[in-house]
Amino acid sequence: MSSDPRRRRRPRRRFPPEILTHAEVLGLLEACGDHLTGIRNRALLALLDRGGLRLGEALQLRPKDLDGGAVRMLHGKGGSSRIVGIGPGAAALVRAWLVARGRWAHLPPSAPVFCTAWGRPLAQGYVRRLPPQLARKAGVLKRVHAHGLRHTHAAQLRQEGLDIGIISKQLGHRSIATTARYLNHICPLAVVEAMRGRAWGTTAPLRTRRAPSR
Known about the structure:
A hairpin with an 8-residue loop joins strand 2 and strand 3 (about 80-85). The chain has a three-stranded antiparallel β-sheet with strand order 1-2-3. About 45% of the residues lie in helices and about 5% in strands.
């Protein structure tokens, strides 16, 4: 086998995203537990799922960026900023974490919302390893990862019939065309609905093959 560093590595195989059901998301949240870090992790996953944030965006949030059901991101992808909404359930979990977070004394004012006990930002590697661990604990058989919660959020919004312009702003896309491609990749509703509408009666009946005479 050649050890030439210039040799191109084979690209990693990418599997299509797997959208979680509401029950599966709740299972992940329940698997976080009720200890302090569990309360933190539950709030973080709820924010990713119900707000559609990118992981890097969520980990940069400061307490001043949270206002009930509104989340302000000053450093989104490409340096853009935006405000997204989250539902009351996710907002309640985030509020519970902010209260619990106060038990960590001497946190610096600059500490992000989702931090360690010493006020340091959570490592992205830690958060990426977390969902698969929780999935095994919760008995969720699908591939679960942090960015997959953003996929789930987008798919849910589309299934609920929200205007694509609203979905685009929530996800932080620069154009509706980007959102359309994104949705068609993770949730091709038109294809699925078309195939669901096909009944057996719309095709020619299957012919059974006669057994040869002996």
